[in-house]
Amino acid sequence: MSQLTLRPAEAGDGGPQARRPGPRPGRLRRSLTPYLYLLPTVLLLVALMVLPIVMVVGYSVMDNVITTRSSESVGLDNYVEVVTDPVFHTAIRNTLYFTVVSVLAHLVLGLAFALLLNSAFVGRWAKAIFRAIYVLPWLFTIAVVAVLWRLLLNPNGVVNYLLDVTGFIDGNVEWLADPDTALHAVTFINIWCGYPFFMISLLAGLQGIPKDLYEAARVDGASAFRQFWHVTIPQLKPIIISMALLDFIWTTQQFALIWMTTGGGPINVTEMLSTFTYKLAFSKYEFSMASTSAVIILALSMVLAFFYVRHQKVRD
Amino acid sequence: MDLPNVRRRGLKRTGVYAGLTLGAMFAGLPVLWMALSSFKSNSEIFEYPPRIITDNFSFDAYTTILTDPAKLRFFLNSYVIGLSVVALTLVVAIFAAYAFSRYDFPLKRVLNVVVISVQAVPPITLLIPYFGLMVTLGLYNTYPGLILTYLVFTLPYAIIMMTGYFNTLPKELDEAVKVDGAGPLTALWRILVPISVPGLVSVGLYTFMIAWNEFLFALTLTRTEDMRTVPIGIQLLMGQHSYEWNEMMAMSVLGCVPILVLFLFFQRFFIGGMSAGAVKI
């Protein structure tokens, strides 16, 4: 569909014709050349990735960091305190609910829209127009998404009006301020703005499935559903797994949407690991505790990253 | 084709279009409501019953924003930071991708895994040390502070995408130049880069989008209003005095315009890059 056949899996693969440095003059220089090209990247990653991680791990075992100059090592005390904090438990539960529901809904909606767009009934122009509309939510800055849904979900807003008129609700629901609905509301908003990421990749994947696989299935008398289940899904499986892992990793890190809609409230019902950590640092100025929480989040993310990298390698 | 079959096809077709329309309403109506609200007066925003076009339909909210130097400053900041990040990301990523795509070296596998996995490092983990670092280095509340920060988020996927792109180009191209006695740098800048423009556009668009949309670090690493970016500007509007919903909506529409325009003009590149599946929001 475009010249871009990029996949993370291909990164640094060197292509099938990987070459070895031949025994020729200037061999040392040649073997150093790639490192020279990678020097800016490596310097940046060391300064802005490795060093900060070392720093944050250091902070996490000290007290009074950043705010004072005299901080002492406290061993694992901070870890014990964070891990036993009930709000931290709430944050983990909320982040899990938010992430699992978001990723599943992104996948289902993304797949449904991709299948509709890929349908033989849809002409080229209709497809381009619908695709542009479907991608729309994904193009918006999260800040805008948050403001937009605060307008729509306002107690006096248009969503309440429509639901009231059609009889689904009675009176004005404060979607983002009611402890019973706030977590579902922010999850819904996140679903709304995140599915296009899946849709586009799955659409590209659908277009890449060889037509003769379907012909063969039809010759065998397979129904539309069986074709979907036994041809489409297996063919899309690598994309689905890789998208789902990436989405899972990124959704657990969502901060701006929560911060701008509920700020983690009311009474912590939408507190996520990210907002919990941010508040520790920049509302309570407990930078040591915040660092500890940040290191725990990093460790959890690295577990997910391990599966992602391994999956990418298998795809190689 | 017999009649029932024709009818079944017609039914399926209707079903597909019904599904498409429902989907378009789900995605598009909230956006439409935002745009419509920006033309209302603030007192009409929560009118009961809601109306699509109200009596005081006007561009006042836009005029207010576009004549306020403090708000225009948000846009200037976002553009300066966005464009700088794009330029730096492209240069650094081109070199790195060239090494990954055209050379074999002992640490290649390791570095490759590092580049893929740093994408998973949570921004919140980096936030606290960055805050300390930026204050120490005097980069707190400056452009360079934010630009450097954003490079960390844009570089990994930029390198991955560019390496993939270079891998699709036959290596005979650069070998041919080298036979003429030119060095690898000439091969890169005279041959590979010019024919990689579609890939560069795609990477550049994503880089700009990430920088334009970033919230957490823009919130934490700047302090004064004249250094704030558009997303923070929108948040500030929410806090200010009473809620000026029409202005917030106008600001939101204006804040999305650059990305929407880029998307309309370069849809193909966006879609191509998105299917690369390595793009972070």
UniProtKB/TrEMBL annotation, chain B:
Its main location: membrane. Belongs to the binding-protein-dependent transport system permease family. It is found in: Cell membrane. PROSITE patterns: ABC_TM1. GO terms for biological process: transmembrane transport. It is a multi-pass membrane protein. Residues 75-266 form the ABC transmembrane type-1 domain. InterPro entries: BP-dep_ABC_trans_perm, MetI-like, MetI-like_sf. Keywords: Cell membrane, Membrane, Transmembrane, Transmembrane helix, Transport. One of its GO terms (cellular component) is plasma membrane. This is Sugar ABC transporter permease. It comes from Jiangella anatolica. Pfam families: BPD_transp_1. The keyword NAD does not apply. SUPFAM superfamilies: MetI-like. The chain crosses the membrane at residues 16-36, 79-98, 110-131, 143-166, 187-212, 248-266.
